[in-house]
Amino acid sequence: MLTAVIFVCLPIYAKPPNIVLILADDLGYTDIGAYGSEVRTPHLDALAEQGIRFSNYHTAASCAPTRAMLLTGIDNHLAGVANIPEAIPPEQSDHPNYQGVLSPQVETIESKLLSSGYHTYMSGKWHLGHKPHERPSARGFERTVAMADTGSDNWEQKPYIPIYDKANWYKDGAELVLPDKYYSSEFLVDEMIGFVDSNAGDGKPFFAYLPFLAVHIPVQAPRDYTEKYLEAYKEGWHALREARHRRAVELGLVASGARVEMESTADWDSLTLDDKRYHAKRMAVYAGMIEAMDFHVGRLVNHLTDLGEIDNTVFVFTSDNGAEASGSMNQAGLLSSFLLGLRDYSVEYETLGERGSFNTISASFASASVGPLAFYKFYAGEGGMRVPLIITGQPVEMKGSVSDAFAYVTDVAATILEIGEIPADKTEMTGRSLLPILSGERDGVYTERDVVGYEVGGNAALFRGDYKLVMNRAPMGDAKWHLYDIKKDPGEVSDLAASEPERFATMLTQYSEYTEANGVLPIPDDYNQGTQILLNAINARLNVPLIASVLFALLLLGGWLIYRGRRQSS
To answer: Computed from CA positions of residues 394, 399, 400, 406, in that sequence, does the dihedral angle turn out positive or negative?
Structure first.
């Protein structure tokens, strides 16, 4: 049964504040300057200095489940988005919790804000439904520009992988044709500025949801941004991970111990000079894409300043999950060339990241992107679930501070509603408002006895106090439960399951109670997310080239077998 949030210490404003919720896509824990990155992010860093950084904030390790919880404040299963829709196996697809789109029975925070007098705007990635009644224009947003898929090209209107026949963009619920001159981060901020201007001066506050495509694959950036970082990554991913860890420790974001290196991280020193040069540029494009996003965030901040709205605006910045570790599409080979050719993509060094180019950063640089944490997107390790969270504006008393209080994605929805002065009797959610932390009233909103459960695609976790029970499936995980003190051991190195058997057993029981209460279904034993996505695409989209899908599935299977063989022989 869902519990109502009880609001306290409601701030008093001349009018309810504007609220800007900015969501990066696949941004790792240490990918911005305020969290230890070498990437130039002056505008996000300024928000951090004016507000509060959360060092122990967790989200789902996958995009659509995060977005469902972020906009409802309830568990992703109860919201109807147990997994991304592209990856739900047929054994689960008939269950209402596993539709991959927002349940019509769930009310969104934007609809609550709209009914309470807010203007509500969205510009960016939706990924919570394609049908007319599932689009953001039907779920509480007044004005929308929405990309409905899991990802899209950043330079033109085309899908980035063969599972889609087109890139599905909508404006105010109708199909949208993108302009010829288009770069995703610039376009989305342009649209948002237009929405804000359309009602400027009418005395009503606004809620602006800005979910960027950056830095989801394909990783793409204007050449001027990429060139700033061409020399930045020549020492490789091991050196970058160590440097990020040191800076995160200096900033008070993580403990100094518990270093970990993922098995998927390649040996930089074994690469040829040409390979090092190529990989370094892949990461340079990624850094450029982050800086470009930051630049356009700055444009929005400056515009609100010019409108005289900045002092009455609360900003919330976070990411939907940790860094994306896929990288095989950039590798030379007949299959990669065939798949990329289906969408007219190139992986040539000279134009990497530019129009017509496909780019990823690989598991090795993804490990540095989330450093010093373990795992990445899709997995329940800290690298997949722990991401930046910055909140700035009038509720924040301790400006420039870092909070190590545990926080979860559903808490953002509860916090936004309280900031927007939405009465408690209108809410029904499991998230808890973080306002007591922002105001300095309390150090945290969860006690040592409170639990938060999580599951997506069979990867699972349960948080209680400083402890985390976690299980990750193949190919990167061992499908076994582990117990960590994530305050002292953010790298999840020292398994406490054997040394603390009573805590381990109690948390296993509590996880079982979580699955029952939230309608979590067992995952098929042979489930593989990548393969399932392709099988679903074949079944649902007859115009997807069958040979491409089969070959891609074989590639995934072959890669998994090679990886398992290496693990067994090590």
So the answer is: negative
Quote the CA–CA distance of 90 and 77 in Å, as a whole number: 16
What pLDDT sits at residue 336? 58
- Catalytic residue, candidates 77, 119, 127, 238: 127
Q: How many CB atoms lie within 10 A of CB 177?
A: 8
pTM of the model: 0.92
Q: Are 113 and 422 in contact (CB under 8 A)?
A: yes
Q: Is 9 labeled as catalytic in the residue annotation?
A: no
Give me the pLDDT at residue 568, please.
Answer: 40
Closest CA to 51 of 411, 399, 449: 399
Catalytic residue among 43, 58, 63, 77: 63
* CATH class (in words) of the domain with range 451-518: alpha beta
Please say if the pLDDT value at position 90 is more than 70: yes
Phi, psi of 145 (to 5 degrees): -125, 120
Q: What is the pLDDT of residues 226-274, one digit of tens each?
A: 999 999 999 999 999 999 999 999 999 998 876 677 888 999 999 999 9
Q: Which of 164-168, 212-216, 550-554 is predicted most confidently?
A: 212-216
Segment 487-510 mean pLDDT: 96
Report pLDDT for 327: 65
Q: What single-letter DSSP state applies at residue 386?
A: B
Mean pLDDT throughout 417-445? 88
Buried b (16+ CB within 10 A) or exposed e, 303-323: bbeeeebeebbbbbbbbbbbb
8 A C-beta contact, residue 548 and residue 163: no
Q: What is the CATH number of domain 18-438?
A: 3.40.720.10
Decide: 300 and 374 in contact? Cβ < 8 Å. Answer: no
CA distances (Å), origin 406, targets 35, 48, 387: 17, 18, 12
Nearest in space to 316 (alpha carbons), one of 25, 126, 47: 47
- Helix, strand, coil shares of the chain, percent, nearest 5, are 35, 15, 50
Tokens, residue 136: 């953001």
Distance CA 319, CA 442 (A): 25
